[in-house]
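Need a sequence for this fold. Nothing fancy.
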C-alpha cells in the first residue's frame, strides 16, 4: 500500500476585524493560543500556531484584522496582516455571511490577487443566519474573487471545521516537519501571559477603553514555593494601596511545588481610563487580575502570584518608541 506523502506549509488567516480569525485558529489546533473577545482589533501581532497530524503539519499565521488605520498602531497592524500574504503557501480569507461587499472587502481582494497564492474563503458564523441564504452569500463572494474553495463554517459551534483542514492539506506541498510534534505555538510564555491579561481586560472593560490599552510584563520568574502553614492568608485583594491600586492575585493550587511571580502593567492613554480600569476601591483591577491569574495557571499548570498595576502613557498608540518597547516593530515594511 502506497504511503501518503507528508505535506507541510504555512497558512495565513486574514480578514476584517472581529470575523473570528483567532477563534477559528484556536479551534483548528485544539488549544487556545490567540486571545479572543467580542471587540474588534483584538489581535495586534502575527501569531504562529502549529497543527500536526499523520498527514502533515500546518503552521497557521493569525493576523490583525484589516481596517482603516487611525494611528501608528493601526498602520502597524495592517502592515503585519499584508506582510503575511508573502510568507505563506495558502491563504484563508475569513468573512461573515453577507450579501454586501464594501470597500474593505474589495481592498482585501486586490491584495490577494497580488499575492498569487491559493485562497480558500472561509465563511464563518453561519450559525447566526438562515441556512437557506448561505449559498447566495457564497455566490456574492465568488463574483468578488476566483477562490480555490469556499467553505461555510461556524468556528464557535465546530461546524464543518474539519473541511477547512482537508482543504488546506489539499493545497499544501510535500514538505518537512518544521516543528516537533509537541509544539503548538512560537509565542513565549511571557508574551502569552501579557495577551491573557489583555484579553481579560478587554472582556471586563467598557467600550471606550480597550483599544487604548496594552500590557507589558515587567518581570516573570519561576521559583519553588514555600510550604504553607495553618493561618496563612491568600494574597488576593490584600493591601490595595489608595493611590496606586493593584491586585495581588495569589496562588490557589495547594499541591504544586513551583510558582510563577509575575508583575504586569496595563498601559492606557488617559487618566480617566486609568480610573475605570482600577475601579472603585480597586474592584475592576482585582477582577481583571484574578481572571488572568486563573487563566495563566491553567496555561502553565503551576501556581501564579500575579500583580497588576496601571500606568498612563498619553497617546502611546502614536508613539513609535513606546510601540517598539511593547514589541510592535513600526519600522517593518511589506
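Here you go.
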Amino acid at each position: 500500500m502506497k504511503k501518503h506523502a507528508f505535506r507541510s506549509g504555512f497558512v495565513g488567516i486574514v480578514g476584517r476585524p472581529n470575523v473570528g480569525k483567532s477563534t477559528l485558529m484556536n479551534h483548528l489546533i485544539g488549544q487556545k493560543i490567540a486571545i479572543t473577545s467580542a471587540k474588534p482589533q483584538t489581535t495586534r501581532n502575527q501569531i504562529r500556531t502549529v497543527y500536526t497530524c499523520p498527514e502533515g503539519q500546518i503552521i497557521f499565521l493569525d493576523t490583525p484584522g484589516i481596517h482603516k488605520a487611525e494611528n501608528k498602531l493601526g498602520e502597524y497592524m495592517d502592515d503585519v496582516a499584508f506582510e503575511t500574504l508573502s510568507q505563506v503557501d495558502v491563504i484563508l480569507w475569513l468573512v461573515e455571511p453577507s450579501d454586501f461587499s464594501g470597500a474593505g472587502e474589495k481592498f482585501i481582494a486586490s491584495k490577494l490577487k497580488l499575492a498569487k497564492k491559493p485562497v480558500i474563503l472561509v465563511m464563518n458564523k453561519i450559525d447566526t443566519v438562515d441556512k437557506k441564504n448561505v449559498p447566495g452569500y457564497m455566490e456574492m463572494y465568488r463574483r468578488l474573487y476566483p477562490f480555490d474553495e469556499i467553505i461555510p463554517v461556524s468556528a464557535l459551534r465546530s461546524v464543518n471545521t474539519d473541511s477547512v483542514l482537508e482543504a488546506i492539506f489539499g493545497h499544501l506541498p510535500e514538505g518537512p516537519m518544521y516543528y516537533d510534534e509537541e509544539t503548538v505555538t512560537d509565542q513565549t510564555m511571557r508574551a502569552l501571559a501579557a495577551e491573557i491579561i489583555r484579553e481579560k481586560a478587554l472582556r471586563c472593560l467598557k467600550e471606550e477603553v480597550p483599544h487604548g490599552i496594552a500590557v507589558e510584563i515587567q518581570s516573570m520568574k519561576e521559583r519553588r514555593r514555600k510550604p504553607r502553614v495553618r493561618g496563612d492568608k491568600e494574597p488576593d485583594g490584600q493591601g490595595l494601596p489608595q493611590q496606586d491600586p493593584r491586585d495581588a492575585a495569589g496562588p490557589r493550587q495547594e499541591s504544586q511545588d513551583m510558582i510563577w511571580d509575575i508583575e504586569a502593567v496595563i498601559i492606557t492613554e488617559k487618566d480617566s481610563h486609568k480610573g475605570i480600569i482600577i475601579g472603585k476601591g480597586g474592584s475592576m483591577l482585582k477582577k481583571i487580575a484574578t481572571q488572568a491569574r486563573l487563566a495563566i495557571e491553567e496555561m502553565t499548570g503551576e501556581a501564579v502570584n500575579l500583580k497588576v498595576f496601571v500606568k498612563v502613557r498619553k497617546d502611546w498608540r502614536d508613539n513609535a518608541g513606546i510601540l517598539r518597547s511593547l514589541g510592535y516593530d513600526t519600522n517593518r515594511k511589506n
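For context: Residues 37-44, 234-255 have pLDDT under 50 and may be disordered.
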